[in-house]
Structures are given as structure tokens and as C-alpha cells.
Specification:
46% helix; mainly alpha
């Protein structure tokens, strides 16, 4: 079959049966159930706040795998505008992560409440940003005016 005398040493998976899971980072359903949010006291302990989840790439503490970094990069905004954008991004990330969680556990009242809380916070921050710095997206309320105001504000690189 091959010219390597220790072929099985180089390819140890050849002798495994079909039931062997080679995806070592995959959690089975029983593991995931332990992360389900059951009450508010567990919520605070099992989840990062939106910013810390954002810089780690995972809202769930028990699912965060630091891989090759001990501490994630801490984003340090240079001004108030950048700080607002960072907070909006963090809330968007948290909402997306909770959305994925709710795809699996649609009956989790705590996750739905937290999602709605983050959505309201994001709406408030977006309104604050737009009142100070102009529209942030094409569905912004401030674009309902005449003349078209999308290009009236200075772009972020103009400041």
C-alpha cells in the first residue's frame, strides 16, 4: 500500500472506527446543556459582559478557549466617537451570540430578556451616536430628511 514502514505511526487515525470524534473542540449536547441559562444568578456568572465577550469572541465563559493568547487585546478608543462605536459593536456581537444560542434554546426566557436588553441598549447608543456624529447605517432615522444627508457629515478619516 505504501513505502513507509511505520505508516500507522504517521497516520494514527487509520485504525479508528467510524464512531471516533476527531473534532476535539466540539461539545456534545450534554455538555451544551450545562451552559444553558436557567436563572439570573447563573446568567451573571456564566456570561461575559458585551465588551469582554466582544474582545474574546465568545459571550459564554465556559466556551471561551484562549488558544494561544493569555489575555485578549483590549480595545482602547481614542475619542468619544470611537468609544460609542466600540460599545455599539460589542452589543451587536452580544446580540449575535445570543441569537445563535436562541437558535438552539428558543424557550430560554433569560436569554430572550438579555437579548432584548442588549437590543434596547444598542438602540440608545445608536441614537446618541447619530445625534452627535450623523448616520451610522443606511436605515438611520436621520436619513429621512431632504436633502440627502448621508454624505454631509465628515467621514471618520476626515477628523
Amino acid at each position: 500500500m505504501n513505502n513507509y514502514p511505520n505508516f500507522k505511526n504517521y497516520y494514527p487515525y487509520n485504525n479508528m472506527n467510524n464512531n471516533t470524534n476527531l473534532n476535539y473542540n466540539m461539545y456534545n449536547k450534554n455538555d451544551i446543556n450545562t451552559y444553558e441559562m436557567q436563572d439570573n444568578s447563573k446568567n451573571a456568572e456564566s456570561l461575559y459582559d458585551p465588551y469582554n465577550g466582544f474582545i474574546r469572541g465568545n459571550l459564554f465563559k465556559s466556551l471561551f478557549d484562549p488558544y494561544k493568547i493569555k489575555e485578549p487585546y483590549d480595545v482602547k478608543p481614542m475619542n468619544e466617537q470611537a468609544k460609542l462605536l466600540t460599545n455599539i459593536d460589542a452589543l451587536c456581537f452580544a446580540m449575535t451570540d445570543l441569537n445563535l444560542y436562541l437558535d438552539i434554546y428558543p424557550d430560554s426566557r433569560d436569554a430572550i430578556n438579555l437579548f432584548n436588553q442588549y437590543r434596547e441598549e444598542k438602540k440608545n447608543l445608536t441614537d446618541e451616536y447619530e445625534s452627535k456624529y450623523g448616520p451610522i447605517s443606511l436605515d438611520s432615522k436621520s436619513l429621512n430628511s431632504y436633502p440627502w444627508s448621508w454624505d454631509n457629515m465628515p467621514w471618520p478619516w476626515d477628523n
